[in-house]
Amino acid sequence: MYPDDKAIVSLFFDRNELALSYTEKKYGDLCRRVADNILHNKEDVSECVDSSYFSLWNSIPPARPDSLKSYLCAIVRNTALAMFKRRSRRDDLPFASELAEISDGRDIESVIDSRLLGGFINEFLSQQRDSRRKIFVLRFYFNYSLKDISDMLKMNESTVKSHLQRLKKELKDFLSGKGYDI
Question: Which of 13, 20, 38, 60 is the most buried (most CB within 10 A)?
Answer without folding.
Answer: 38
